[in-house]
Write a structure and sequence with these properties.
Layout lengths: L1 H7 L6 H13 L1 H11 L7 H16 L14 H14 L3 E3 L1 E6 L2 H13 L4 E6 L9 H12 L3 E7 H5 L4 H10 L3 E5 L15 E2 L2 E5 L3 E5 L11 H6 L3 E2 L2 E5 L2 H17 L19 E7 L7 H12 L3 E5 L7 H12 L3 E7 L5 H8 L2 H7 L2 E5 L4 E2 L3 E4 L3 E5 L5 H6 E9 L3 H15 L1 E3 L1 H4 L4 H14 L3
């Protein structure tokens, strides 16, 4: 069996992942082999893979008449190539759009979402990894309930494992049903009902679409900032997120992501309504939606991140709560720093996940030695925003972390934008984070006790198991 593993595990797998799986199988075969057969493949197969491929083909066909970039924008040759790559891998075109607002404070964010829902006349499409009806989100769910009461169709998707661990799960489902909301679980694990999915493959997307006129994407889950924990509330531990509110043609891209997931989970094909939208000035902002996940074996989000970082000439700023890069991303970041690009990384001082937090720390020495500036957002807060800017040219924001899970194991949705004010808005948010964070130095890191460094490296190995 070990001989078999050596020749099969590395197939279509990154070297670090192959090494981690082989070590587990060779040293602990009674643990390693069952785990590998259960969740060794980073990709989905069967119906989900076929539906995603078909959806990509349909999107590519229906947008084939659109130019590579909207009229009035003039991206650099490198960015033009990246837009072509994104379109080739996902079927999503780059279109006009408007960044209406960035939202960070949870009360304000759910208030803005509720205000958009209150304007709905036809439908509201909701998709989030985690959802809970609590004091913070009551305004949001009440707006959904009121929308149903006035004849609006409300469709809602939520990840099964992502949401079920929070308070009053059974009661929450009943409240959704009583409100008249058409809701379904994503990636459900209900073996007694014949519904089984690999537990490590999840839908991590976070999006909202109202009448095809307005959309939200970002890092917010629909739950209070303390995630329903009395302990978190007592110690002041809150999640800090960032989401973007969109108008214009780009909303169709967000809607296409939802429609694909809705069809996968329900078998129902949605027909988009052509909305009446405010005109967007040519060249105001060019936006592209990039879906990714286990249905995309080409890993479009990872390729986009790596390409963007190689494009940089002056400055890169990365914010990620879970930063566990693969070889290509780490090489791109350190190479950029070595060639004189100013690279900043914003991470939390303490992560909310033990293994990922320690795995992330194992990269700090390499980054610091290359000249990357690491800003640690102070504990007990959890920095959960996920975005990237390159020079003053392009910005990216969405649900995707920069770790192995987001590259291959979880469905994500990301927005790329240039030509408008998205980059300036994100850079202004960087300044807020920078003002409260503490910069980590190489000298300080060298004083870390060897026991913690050992634990970091062990956790780094486990993070590559996919």
């Amino acid at each position: 069996m070990k001989f078999f593993a050596v020749g099969t595990v590395p197939e279509n797998r990154r070297p670090s992942s192959s090494s981690a799986w082989l070590l587990l199988i060779l040293f602990l075969p009674f643990v390693g082999f069952p785990l590998y057969w259960l969740m060794g493949s980073p990709y989905v197969h069967g119906r989900r893979r076929q539906v995603q491929a078909q959806a990509n083909h349909i999107l590519a066909e229906r947008s084939s008449h659109l130019p590579l970039v909207p009229e009035g924008v003039d991206p650099s040759p490198a960015l033009t190539g990246l837009l072509r790559q994104n379109r080739q891998l996902t079927g999503m075109p780059c279109v006009d759009g408007r960044v209406h607002a960035l939202h960070d404070d949870p009360d304000e964010t759910f208030g803005a979402m509720a205000a958009a829902i209150d304007t709905a006349r036809y439908y509201v499409n909701v998709e989030f990894y985690i959802m809970s009806w609590d004091a913070t989100t009551d305004r949001f769910f009440t707006s959904l309930k009121d929308a149903v009461a006035r004849g609006v169709t409300v469709r809602l998707l939520l990840d099964h494992l992502g949401s079920r661990k929070y308070a009053d799960w059974e009661g929450f489902q009943k409240r959704l049903t009583l409100a008249g909301i058409d809701w379904h679980l994503m990636m459900p694990i209900k073996p007694l009902e014949g519904r089984w999915r690999r537990p490590d493959l999840r839908n991590h997307r976070k999006l909202l679409v109202v009448d095809g006129d307005v959309a939200f994407v970002g890092s917010h889950n629909v739950i209070g900032p303390h995630y329903g924990s009395e302990t978190n509330t007592r110690i002041g531990r809150a999640w800090h997120d960032l989401s973007v509110e969109l108008r214009g043609e780009v909303v169709f891209g967000v809607e296409a992501v939802f429609a694909t997931d809705w069809f996968i989970e329900t078998g129902q094909m949605l027909q988009a309504r052509k909305p009446v939208q405010d005109p967007v000035d040519p060249g105001e902002c060019a936006l592209q939606i990039i879906p990714s996940g286990p249905g995309f074996p080409t890993e479009p989000n990872l390729r986009m991140f790596v390409s963007l970082i190689h494009m940089a000439n002056r400055k890169i700023a990365i914010t990620s709560p879970y930063f566990v890069p693969d070889e290509s991303l780490l090489a791109a970041i350190t190479t950029a720093a070595y060639r004189g690009v100013e690279v900043e990384l914003f991470v939390g001082e303490e992560a909310d996940q033990f293994l990922v937090g320690h795995a992330q720390r194992s990269y700090y020495r390499t980054l610091l030695e290359a000249g990357v500036r690491i800003h640690r957002y102070p504990a007990p807060a959890v920095l959960h925003a996920k975005y990237l800017t390159v020079d003053d040219e392009v910005g990216v924001i969405g649900s995707s972390n920069m770790d192995f899970r987001s590259f291959a194991l979880t469905y994500e949705v990301t927005l790329l934008g240039f030509g408008g004010d998205l980059v300036k808005r994100l850079q202004a948010n960087d300044e807020l984070y920078r003002s409260v964070s503490r910069e980590l130095t190489l000298q300080e890191w060298e004083r870390e006790p060897w026991r913690r460094r050992y634990l970091d490296n062990v956790c780094r190995l486990t993070a590559a198991l996919m």
